[in-house]
């Protein structure tokens, strides 16, 4: 799976449409669907996409990793200068 944090506009639109259809989606489902539709991202990159606080996203990522639905794709240096894990949906 190629690593890219830049997503296509169509991927983002698809994710938004699917989110609108599933008004009862859990936060866990939202995180998973976003990674599935938009590609691999760090937790911090998911914040503006999901409009959720970082602590909600990191908690859901941990749950998804335990379930085997999300894996660590790579690590990268963020704008803050800190290393971050890039997560991808399986």
Neighbour order of strands in the largest sheet: 1-2
Number of strands: 2
In terms of per-residue confidence, which ranges show pLDDT below 50 for 5 or more consecutive residues? Answer: 1-5
Portion of residues within helices = 40-55%
Would you tell me the structural class of the helices and strands?
A: alpha+beta
Number of domains: 1
CATH topology: Arc Repressor Mutant, subunit A
Shape: globular
Distance between the termini: 10 Å
Walk me through this protein's architecture.
With 90 residues, the protein is an alpha+beta fold. The protein is 52% helix and 17% strand. The N terminus is likely disordered. Strands 1-2 form a two-stranded antiparallel sheet.
Outline the secondary-structure elements.
Layout: H1 9-21, H2 27-38, H3 43-50, H4 54-67, E1 70-77, E2 83-89
Antiparallel strand pairs: 1-2
Helix pairs in contact: 1-2, 2-4, 3-4
Summarize the structure.
By secondary structure, the protein is an alpha+beta fold. It is 52% helix and 17% strand. Helix 3 packs across helix 4.
Keywords:
90 residues, alpha+beta, Arc Repressor Mutant, subunit A, two-stranded antiparallel ribbon, 52% helix, 17% strand, globular, disordered N terminus
């Amino acid at each position: 799976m190629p690593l890219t944090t830049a997503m296509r506009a169509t991927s983002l639109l698809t994710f938004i449409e699917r989110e609108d259809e599933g008004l009862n989606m859990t936060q866990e489902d939202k995180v998973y669907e976003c990674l599935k539709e938009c590609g691999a991202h760090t937790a911090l990159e998911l914040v503006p996409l999901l409009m959720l606080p970082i602590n909600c996203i990191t908690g859901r990522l941990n749950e998804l990793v335990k379930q085997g639905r999300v894996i660590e794709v790579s690590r990268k240096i963020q704008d803050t200068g800190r290393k971050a894990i890039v997560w991808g949906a399986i």
